[in-house]
Amino acid sequence: xxxxxxxxxxxxxxxxxxxxxxxxxxxxxxxxxxxxxxxxxxxxxxxxxxxxxxxxxxxxxxxxxxxxxxxxxxxxxxxxxxxxxxxxxxxxxxxxxxxxxxxxxxxxxxxxxxxxxxxxxxxxxxxxxxxxxxxxxxxxxxxxxxxxxxxxxxxxxxxxxxxxxxxxxxxxxxxxxxxxxxxxxxxxxxxxxxxxxxxxxxxxxxxxxxxxxxxxxxxxxxxxxxxxxxxxxx
Amino acid sequence: xxxxxxxxxxxxxxxxxxxxxxxxxxxxxxxxxxxxxxxxxxxxxxxxxxxxxxxxxxxxxxxxxxxxxxxxxxxxxxxxxxxxxxxxxxxxxxxxxxxxxxxxxxxxxxxxxxxxxxxxxxxxxxxxxxxxxxxxxxxxxxxxxxxxxxxxxxxxxxxxxxxxxxxxxxxxxxxxxxxxxxxxxxxxxxxxxxxxxxxxxxxxxxxxxxxxxxxxxxxxxxxxxxxxxxxxxx
Lengths: 234, 234
Known about the structure:
Radius of gyration of chain A: 22 Å
Shape of chain A: elongated
CATH superfamily of the largest domain in chain A: NAD(P)-binding Rossmann-like Domain
Largest interface: A-B, 89 and 89 residues
Strand content of chain A: 15-25%
Number of domains of chain A: 2
CATH architecture of the largest domain in chain A: 3-Layer(aba) Sandwich
Oligomer: homodimer
Structural class of chain A: alpha/beta
Helix content of chain A: 40-55%
Strand order of the largest sheet of chain A: 2-1-3-4-5-6-7
């Protein structure tokens, strides 16, 4: 039996709690970060609070092993006196959506081998995938995640705006969006690159620029230049 | 029986030919754009050549109904003397990959109602989805497609580079990439936007910038500004 305390009622804390509460071999307690006074000790306290609260909250948790769930805070951002660790699920969470942790990568780190064993056991219970990632790598990974998640979604936002302006249903782009992301399973992104920037098709690039507003143009130009630069590196 | 001539042995021409050659009710001929002399007339000649060759090739095709497959050339870029049309499958094609046209959106346009009927029949045979899109809308759609396909893929390229530099397997980002694109099925991209730019988390933004090279920084800054501008419009 592994006893787990989850601190924090945000997206990550709530989803983890839901997933662990009926899991075999796990005893889980879910508490608010404002009520840390009388927690029973557990095998691991998982602090799932906003990045800037991790230091403060971890100093108040009286447990031998404390971990956080953040992609961008180093393990030593924890200020508890016992052992430390990181339990970072690399996925985008929305509170309403049901999240299945199956195959979700968990980036694990600990200053204690036994602590790492506990974290690995939790990932196995959740059917997630175990990755050992140190704090330095994790920070980089978090930036990479911004590109593939936040910035990619912003590409969808701009496309959605272009479609709205000309009464084109955004749905029409859905199969292309799905195919674009599925391609990464079979070929590297650099090999998958296509389009006017990649083939230096200046006429199409100019035609596209003429159809965009200033803010869209600036992004189009910047990304086109970048694609062309990467193309030359090959 | 619909008779179809496909001109051009590039990705689109080849995939269309493969998909149509065993289809019931279709008689398809596939020819090279350099051998246009002695083609038998058919119900529709589909010119699947590069954008800048469409004018020249269409002038040489002796058929009553000629269409092209391009997203960015207007219907009147065709220079045949008979009826004209557009048969634009909105998808990314790689020659080696098998392409299933099921549910692929086809953007159709014609100056002839009977021509449009023929194009609709072909889409039904391919199990695709019919959209009526005029030349002006199609040009905009093509730009939108550059954002969701070419530029999104470039986000993957940058993330891949960041991972490679720090010995992080790119695979670790795959579930996040898939989830990001699947979200568009249930919520609008603007509602799906998350991340440090969206929540004006200047500290994380600065930390991220410190980890990037100059070219990556410029893109990060430009996209962060754009996300913040869209956020204010809400």
